[in-house]
Design a protein that fits this description.
single chain, alpha+beta, Ribosomal Protein S5, domain 2, 3 domains, four-stranded mixed β-sheet, two-stranded antiparallel sheet, 6 strands, elongated
């Protein structure tokens, strides 16, 4: 089974006093890259959350968002009176220096100044954290299910494209005999063009043709390409989920054999099939960037 690195999960829950909503989004990345957006109340749990998400999501760019229903704690704030008095004294002094109207009500102005109104510091209770953990677990599980579903779609696409490469490989067989005859005839004409026919040692000529044909023989490449394609499909069926890098290595070997076939072919029809195989392989490689 393979998984995509693209996924999304959302969950909500509460403890009667507060309502929590959690979103987990993932996209492809070479490493585990985590971004967390959450109230300061949960800052002490950052390391625990990182470990949990790394264990369950393994790789990818992960975005965790935790929100608390603001209506549940809108009255939890304090006024820094000492700072407010300091602002008041400074503003009064400035008004006096500038000969401004000192009867203006400054309370509304002071309350909007930095750090005058502050949220009440809170400690995270164990019961509250257990509630939030359950919501995070659910959102992460839904994100993982989303990845699995996307992975099944990608698996079907991979199987289809590797199957096409195997079909094109099989079609090459139909051009092999004609290819050999064309090459043999071409060599004969080239020799006859520069040498008199009666002076040609036919046995030596056949030996040279055989030597040349062995150099451009693609039998080994075809066998290896078939084995690599079979190995790719076998890897898709493995129970392990983190197969993206392994599949990428296999496609590199597939590409190497396709390129060698193309360079040795010396045949238009075979090279046309090679181009089609390359096209399908590139589509596989593009999608592999998104596999866990």
């Amino acid at each position: 089974m393979i998984k995509s690195m693209t996924g999304y999960g959302r969950a909500e829950g509460g403890d009667g006093e507060r309502k929590y909503s959690v979103e987990v989004k993932t996209i492809n990345s070479k490493q585990f890259d985590l971004q967390m957006r959450m109230p300061g109340l949960f800052k002490e749990k950052e390391l625990e959350l990182r470990t949990f998400l790394l264990q369950h999501l393994e790789r990818g760019k992960v975005e965790l968002t935790i929100q608390i229903d603001a209506s549940q704690n809108s009255d939890k704030f304090t006024i820094n009176k000492a700072l407010a008095h300091k602002y008041f004294d400074e503003i009064n002094e400035l008004q006096h220096e500038l000969h401004l109207d000192e009867k203006q009500n400054l309370v509304d102005v002071i309350l909007r100044l930095p750090d005058v109104v502050q949220p009440t510091p809170e400690l995270l209770a164990d019961d509250e954290w257990h509630t939030v953990q359950a919501v995070i677990d659910t959102a992460t599980e839904r994100c993982d299910i989303s990845r699995q579903n996307e992975g099944r779609l990608l698996k079907a696409d991979f199987e289809m494209r590797i199957g096409l490469i195997q079909e094109y490989l099989g079609t090459i067989e139909t051009y092999e005999i004609a290819r050999i005859e064309r090459i043999r005839e071409k060599l004969r004409k080239e020799v006859e063009k520069y040498f008199e026919t009666q002076n040609i040692d036919q046995n030596r000529f056949e030996q040279e043709i055989i030597y040349y044909l062995e150099k451009i023989d693609i039998t080994e490449e075809k066998v290896r390409l078939k084995k690599h394609c079979d190995y790719f499909n076998q890897t898709l069926e493995q129970d392990t989920t983190s197969n993206g890098k392994k599949l990428n290595f296999i496609t590199q070997e597939v590409g190497r054999e396709i390129n060698t076939i193309g360079s040795k072919a010396s045949d238009y029809e075979i090279q046309r099939l090679v181009v089609q195989m390359k096209d399908e392989l590139e589509k596989v490689k593009e999608q592999l960037f998104n596999i866990l």
